[in-house]
Design goal:
- The termini are far apart.
- The chain has 169 residues and is an alpha+beta fold.
- It has a four-stranded antiparallel sheet.
- 22% of the residues are buried.
- The protein is globular, with a radius of gyration of 21 Å.
- The longest helix is centred in the middle third of the chain and has 29 residues.
- 60% of the residues lie in helices and 14% in strands.
Length: 169
C-alpha cells in the first residue's frame, strides 16, 4: 500500500445462507475466519486480490451455493486510500492479537522443562504458519512472535547441550 496513489484491488464475497441447518453456516464462517477475511458488513467479506485469494473465495462461494445459499464474487477497489488503510489496519490488528497470544504462550513456557518447551515450540511454529497464511498486512508483532518461538527453541537446544555428562574416573 505504501507509495501507491490509489487503492488496490480486493476480492469481495457477498453471501447469504439459510439459518437452518446451521452446520453449513458455521463451516463457512470458520473457513472465512481461517482465511483472515475483512468483514465489510453482514454477509460481505473481502481479501486483497490475487490469484490465491480469488480461488479460495471461489471455492467458498461454491460451497455456499451447494448449501442452498447465494454467493457473488466481486473484484472491487475502495474509493480512497484511507478506506483501504482502515481495512488493512483492521486485518493487521486481528493478526497482531494472534501473534501476541503466541508471544505470551512462548514466554509462559520459557521456564518449563525441556521436553515441554520443545513440544510448545513445535505447536507454536505450526500456529505461526497458520497465522502467516492469513497475514496480508504484517504487524510488528509478527517478528516478535517469531523471535519468541526461536528463543524458546534456542533455550531448549541450549539446555540439552548444557546438561552435564557424568564422567567416569
Amino acid at each position: 500500500m505504501a507509495g501507491r496513489s490509489e487503492p488496490g484491488s480486493w476480492v469481495m464475497l457477498s453471501y447469504r445462507l439459510p439459518r437452518e441447518p446451521s452446520t453449513p453456516r458455521i463451516t463457512i464462517w470458520r473457513k472465512l475466519k481461517r482465511l483472515g477475511v475483512a468483514q465489510i458488513g453482514d454477509g460481505v467479506v473481502a481479501l486483497p486480490a490475487d490469484a490465491r485469494t480469488r480461488e479460495q473465495l471461489e471455492w467458498i462461494a461454491d460451497e455456499i451455493t451447494e448449501a442452498a445459499g447465494s454467493a457473488t464474487l466481486w473484484l472491487a477497489q475502495p474509493t480512497t486510500l484511507p478506506a483501504e488503510r482502515d481495512l488493512a489496519t483492521t486485518m493487521a490488528t486481528a493478526r497482531a492479537t494472534e501473534y501476541t497470544h503466541v508471544i505470551t504462550t512462548a514466554a509462559a513456557a520459557a521456564d518449563s522443562p525441556a521436553p515441554e518447551r520443545a513440544a510448545t515450540a513445535r505447536r507454536l511454529r505450526a500456529e505461526l504458519r497458520r497465522i502467516n497464511r492469513r497475514d496480508y498486512f504484517p504487524p510488528a508483532e509478527r517478528d516478535l512472535a517469531r523471535l519468541a518461538v526461536l528463543d524458546l527453541t534456542t533455550t531448549t537446544a541450549d539446555t540439552a547441550q548444557a546438561t552435564p555428562v557424568k564422567e567416569h574416573p
